[in-house]
Amino acid sequence: GQQVMQIPQYQHVQEGEDFTTYCNSSTTLSNIQWYKQRPGGHPVFLIQLVKSGEVKKQKRLTFQFGEAKKNSSLHITATQTTDVGTYFCAGLFISNFGNEKLTFGTGTRLTIIP
Amino acid sequence: GAVVSQHPSRVICKSGTSVKIECRSLDFQATTMFWYRQFPKQSLMLMATSNEGSKATYEQGVEKDKFLINHASLTLSTLTVTSAHPEDSSFYICSAGWETQYFGPGTRLLVL
């Protein structure tokens, strides 16, 4: 089956430092989505990337989708304490039967040292 | 964005009892909803796809007779954990949407 891996599993950074999490899929994706889950909360949609090589920015967050549509990254510039949480990528796969299935990555837990 | 609600938010039950969790799409109709389970410090694992008016599609390894799903209307899907055991204790989350998924706030189940 499809697998979506993320690295690193954990990241501790000083406030103000940058942070990057990488997402890799075993198969080509229809699109990739990123979610943020705060401790004790539920996943909240951040962004969706569809096109090969696509780059999108949301303030201090930069999202990239690889040329082969099998990998993606999320980069946060100058982290703030509000960035704390677990960041999940989720790949949308289209099965041979035409069904859509969203497979979540393993997640990267970000903690900020004030 | 779209709103998805879940009820209850927390439930504690005795081993052997059944627990029903409701997932509602509040401002849109959802022919398909998804049920996930998340163990502490782990990722979300898709359990099943709930289809309005038809049988749910279960992921490999998920017992359909244990996790009963009913999607009787375009705004409501229910997940019933039958004969719950301590190992079923987890965070259950539903989602609905089209290309992007809107998640409910989740239900924390503790089976004693």
The string of secondary-structure elements of chain B, in order, is: EEEEEEEEEEE
Q: What is the CATH H-level superfamily of chain A?
A: Immunoglobulins
Number of strands of chain A: 11
Low-confidence stretches of chain B: none
> What is the alpha-carbon Rg of chain A in Å?
14 Å
Q: Report how far apart the termini of chain A are.
A: 41 Å
Secondary-structure class of chain B: mainly beta
Structural class of chain A: mainly beta
Quick check: average pLDDT of chain A? 93
Enumerate how many helices of chain B there are, as a single number.
0
Most extensive interface between two protein chains, with residue counts:
A-B, 22 and 21 residues
What gap, in angstroms, lies between the N and C termini of chain B?
37 Å
Oligomeric description of these chains: heterodimer
Q: Summarize the helix and strand pattern of chain A as letters.
A: EEEEEEEEEEE
Top-tier CATH class of chain A: Mainly Beta
Reported for the largest beta sheet of chain B, the result is: 7 strands, mixed
User: In CATH terms, what is the architecture of chain A?
Assistant: Sandwich
Give the C-alpha Rg of chain B. 13 Å
Strand tally of chain B:
11
Q: What general form of chain A does the structure show?
A: globular
